[in-house]
Amino acid sequence: MPDSTSSHPPPNGPDTTEAPQKRLPASSSTGSAELADLEMRLRRSLHQYPDFPSSGILFEDILPIFADALLHRSLIRALELRVDHDFGIGLRPDVIVGLEARGFLFGPSLALKLGAGFVPVRKQGKLPGPTETAAFEKEYGKDYFQIQKDGIKPGQRVLIVDDIIATGGSAAAAGSLVKKLGGSLIGYLFILELGFLRGKEKLDAPVHTLLSSQKEGLSKR
User: Residue 221: pLDDT above 70?
Assistant: First the structure.
């Protein structure tokens, strides 16, 4: 009879073999603690500029995150945890849609991390081939977003990402483009939110923000 080992317990004894360790989901206490730590680290890295680009706005610059490899990695990990926490690991998106231009900074990396495709939404005239177009209002008139018609297949689960939600017009236009192509829009994910501008009220899918939002304008503080 062979000797008993940790991988081969005695036939009459309890099986003390340890099950292989699985990665904890973001909803677990471990994942939640990691997410909270990452969010705090990322929040501290932002640079703030009062009254930019206009009076009453406290501009929070995310670019320092990308200047540091560790912070950049932390951002992608935090976004991954946020997606798994809010949607569930088994319900990850099939496609990440990034908005021009800062959605391009982290959208492709997040898509790769989640095992999803990446599709850009760009200003009119910037994409080759057949496109769909949607208009959105800006301070001084209309602008237009476009997406390539073959970028999303009908029924694919789509998550739209950008650095910040302000008035919500550009994000809403991107959402309409996803629907024109037959995609299933599961939500929006932003790094920051200017909550006092109430932009998420324009969006018809769940809105998720990684870092705490500004509840009021600078002039009201």
Answer: no
What residues are labeled active site? 102, 139
Residue 43 is given by DSSP the state H
Phi, psi of 132 (to 5 degrees): -105, 150
Beta 95-99 vs 117-123: how paired, if at all? parallel
pLDDT class of 31 with cuts at 50, 70, 90: confident
Cα 187-75-121 angle, rounded to 5 deg: 45
Site of tokens 């002039």: 219
Supply the angle between the helices 103-114 and 69-87 in degrees, to the nearest 10. 60
Q: Angle between the 29-45 and 69-87 helix axes, to the nearest 10 degrees?
A: 140
